[in-house]
Structure formats: C-alpha cells, structure tokens
User: What shape does this take?
Amino acid sequence: MDFFLQQLINGITLGGVYALIALGYTMVYGIIQLINFAHGEFFAAGGYMGVILISYLSSQGVNPYACLAISLVLSMGYCALLAMAVEQLAYKPLRQASRLAALLSALGMSIFLQNGLMLTQGVYDRPYPTEITSGGFEIGAISISYMQILIVALTAFLLVALNILVFKTRIGRAMRATAQDKVMSALVGINSNRIIALTFAVGAGLAAAAGIMVGLYYGSVNYTMGFVPGIKAFAAAVLGGIGNITGALVGGLIIGMVEIFAAGYISGEYKDVFAFIILIGVLYFKPTGIMGENVDDTRV
Amino acid sequence: MKRLLVLAVALLALGLLLAGCGGEEQKAEKVLKIGTMSPLTGPYAADGNDIRQGAEIAVEVFNEAGGIPGFSKIEIISEDTACDPKQAVAAANKLINEKVTAVVGAYCSSSTIPASETLAEENIFMLTPASTNPKVTERGLKYMFRTCGRDDHQAPAAVKFMKDVEGVKTIFIVDDKTTYSQGLAEGVAKAAEAAGIKVLEHDHVNQGDKDYSAVLTKVKAAHPDLLYISLQNSATGALMVIQAKRMGIDAILMGQDAVYHPKLIEIAKGDAEGMFCTFGAIDKNAPKYKEFLAKYKAKTGNEPGAYSAYAFDSATAYLMAVKDAGTTDPAKVRDALLKLDFTGASKQIKYEENGDSGSNYTVYKVQDGKFVPYWNSLTGQKL
Assistant: This one.
C-alpha cells in the first residue's frame, strides 16, 4: 500500500509537469489548428532562463523564495516574448498555407531553438542550486518532497488562473471567439493576429514555469530536455482532447501516472511504451480524446 | 549571356588557380592527419568533448616539440558520432576520405564496434580511450587498440569491493540498456551471484530519462545494502543520486566509469557525498599528469573529464609509434606500438598483442566534493 501511495505521489508530480506543457499545445491547437512542435523548446528555454536567474539572484544574497518567485515570473515573461517572436517569424507568414507547411516550420523551429540553446549555453548539463528546494517530510513510509508539493500547487494555481483568463475576461472571450471562427470574429472587431500571438505567449509562459519546476525537481537542465517531455505533453494533449484545457490537465495526469505505474510495477524500460499504447488506444476508440466532445464551449 | 560567359570563365580561372595552389602546397608539405571520433552533441557530449580535447592536446604537445621528422605538421580532424552506430560509420568514412592514419575514439562501445570494422578495411588504426565492452578487442582486428580497461575487469573489481570492504549482502542494479551499461550491469550481477551477494532486482530505465522516482521507489521498498548505478552518462547518474537521496534511500550508492566525472559532483553536490565509483586509477600527483593538467586547463579552461587523459595517451601512443617507426605504414607502426612502454597521463601504457592495455580499476569515494581514491582492486588495499 505504501508502495502504491508513493508511486501515486510520484505520478501526480510528473503528471502536473506534463499538464503544464500540454496546456500550451492545446491552446495553440485550439486557436489555429497547429501542432506547435517547438513548444518543448520553450520548456527548455524556460528551464535555462530559470537557472541563470536563480544562480544570479542567489549569488546576490536574495532570499531563496523571493529568488524563485522573481525568476519564475521573469522566465515566464521571457518565454512569452520568445514564443511571440517565433510565431511572427515561423507561423504567421504561413497562416494561409497548407497545414503541413506550418507543421514543418514548427519542426524546423524546434531544431533551430534546440541548437541555439546548445550553442549559447553549452552541451553540458547545467546544475540548479538545489539548496532552495531540497528537503521534505515523511508520512509513515511515504516521503514527500517540498518540491513535489510546489509542483502540484503551482500547476493548480496556474490552471485556475488560466481558466479565469479564458472564461472570465474579455481577452478570453476574444480567444474563444477567434478559435470558433477567425473571419467572423475579425468582422466584429477582434484583432485575431494579436489574440493568436497572445495565445502563444500564454502557452509558452506555462511551459517556462514547467521548465523551472523540472530543473529544480531533478537538479539540472540540459539543452535536449525539451524533446521527450514535449512529445509526452503532446500525447497528453491529444489524450485529453486537443483544444480542451481541462483535457490537457486530465491527459497530463494520466500519462504521468501510467508512466510511473508501468515503471513501478513492470519495469522502467516499458514506461514510454505504455504511455503511447494508451495514446494509440484513445486515438483508435475515441479520436476526439477523453474530454473532447463539447468542443465549442471549452475550446480556446 | 555574355555576362554569364565572363562569369564562367572567371570561375574556371579561379578554380585552376586554387587547384594549382593546392597542388603546390601538397608537394611542399607532408601532413600527418589523425582523427577523433566521439559524441560532440547529444546527451554524451560532455564525455565526447573531453575525448576530443584530450587528443588535441597530445597533438599540440607534439607540434610544439617540433613535430615528427618527415612531417611538416600534425593535424587533427574531429568527427561527431552522437553515440549513434550509423553516424559513427559515416564519421569513419569521412575520416577515411580525409586520409587519416589513425582515429582516437569512439566513446560508446556500440559506436566503436561498427566504426572499427569500417576503419579496419583501410588498415587505419583505432585507439579507443573509453569503450570498455570486451568485444571491442575480441574480434581479432589488427589495428584496434584500447587504452582504458574492460567491463569484465571492472565488474569483478566492483563486486570484490562490495563484498570485501563494505560487507554488502544484497544489491539492486539499474542500467539504461546501452551495449556498455547493460553489459557491465549483467557482469556485476553474475559476479555478485558468484560471490554470494543476492541481486534483489536488475531493473532498466531509458536513456535520457530524468524522472527516476518510480524505480527508486522500488529500490526503497526492496531495502538493498547497495544500489549499483550503471548509466551511460554522468549527468543522468547525478539525477539518480539526487533523487535517491531525496527519497530517503540509505543504501550505499555505487557507480561505474561513465558516471565518474567531475560533472556528477557539480550537479549532485552534497547528495553525491559518500558515493563510490570504479574508474581506472590516475595518479594525480604524477609529473606527467600534472603537465597534462596544466596544458588542458590552459587550453580549455576546464578540469579534464573522465576520459581526457586516456584520449591524450591514446593519441600520444600512436604519435610515438609513428615517430619510432619513421613511417605511417600500418604494419610497422603496429610493431612500434606494441613495443611501447611509457608512463602516460593516465597510467603505464603497455599494449598487449590483442590491443588491450590491462586494467587498473580503483574505487573512488566522493569526499568533500571530490573523487578520492579509496581502494585498489588489484592489491585489495585501502588507499
């Protein structure tokens, strides 16, 4: 039982990270039907920006928690800007072209950004200052680290904030309108280009937050770190019903749990296989994803 | 049309001019070219760059000392294998086209083996500083040499340490399924069973994983005396160490030569304290090593990595052999190479007929943020 509960906690933590990244996939797909394969790289860029800022601030003697908060906000902002630049450069000119062209452009952008990170930051793993977040407590035989709590709490907080943004604000209404029909929403006075750019920015900001969490949780970042979580988060987004915000959360948690339980009860080498078997199963039996039916209301 | 014609003529003339230059240069100079082959990108880039830089320093040392008689200079050409067998073979072909006479590399045994087959067809030397799989030298290739130790020496050395020094009764093994890491882990499992140590479980993770919480939860539940970490990469090794400590695993942690790297301690920091690793003994107080260290630091600004000194010694050995033979004729260089017996930066280098150079595995312990030699597997003595 302890073993099961411990794995459950591990799964929720990993799922939270996937969910944060998956949100960006889902939002961008919801609004312009593009699978943004460069999204994993925003996650990596956020992780790097985080380590640079946290190292600098903590060397200046800033309080660790303030340090973390400031770095989080700044890297989210940085990745938001980066995503808007990428959108301008790689996707906007192709908006009238076929979907395949935009998809290829996204793949190219992913390789470009990954190599950019390698060339500017070096090939070595970059260690995070772990003093901030080490430690935890035990309940019986189950150990929970502060970092796990932080990841779950931050995921929940950002998800609530995102829901308020999308469903309670004018910008959110404009996003939903653009997702439904770009032309019609433009006719009623919505600047759809600006809304699309904003959607990219929000998604990348969430990925950046996930990048910092992962860096702190595991202790280091690497320029290749965006690829695998990017693919997993994509799977999570499809699983939950791509275009659906709640679906991204559910999908992320499911993929995280499946991975951890497959590794825990079978063997670590099978965990990726199981994550993708689930994905294929969903595509086969319910192609819209778990939450993907009442599309128009909840779609961004 | 006319402009096009002029352009074409101009290009042609330029081409002839350049070709002329090239021809003359080749007549005047005889360059000795050696290649390196290691993962310069991807997750193993840290070790790969260490290898490239180690070999470069050896060439620099020779060039500064006046080169080799008969050659105007020594040049080094570095190729990236990304630890991928296909890319390694492509890199080997590229180096063949560049007319290198020897290659230092590769890193992953799974790349070294196919690349060496390609190089063997052209009678080009391959001296590996890092591939420890027994098969590397067991295929009877005439020009395949190895400067590091072998897995089938490393595994028994590690197990002997567990049993004799730490009194370990149960172990849990994790590897990441590469030719190297899995082969070594299986060797450890076999040696452990033979020594009466119980292998509670031998689990696998995927290369490049960052999350080890699931497998470590298993380790915690199994309560082994020792967790043997056989991963291909020091950075992932560090992640496993950090996560194991955070999870409250109190087993002894032990890694192998791919995990042994200054980066491990840089990333895992305090969590690495008390961890053990097997690696070839390098006497850091030896004058030869100090000389190498100074050059390495001056050139790269970094501490040498795990395989830098082996790469340095591999290149040095080949260049010495060419110097002794006075030619690059493979058969003659091979004879000279087998006659060599010199103190390298890493160890005493003496190649055997099959290309191996013996093993000198030592157990290191992480103490105060440094790898400290702890136990000698050959003598069974604490250091």
User: Anything to note?
Assistant: Chain A has a mean pLDDT of 89.
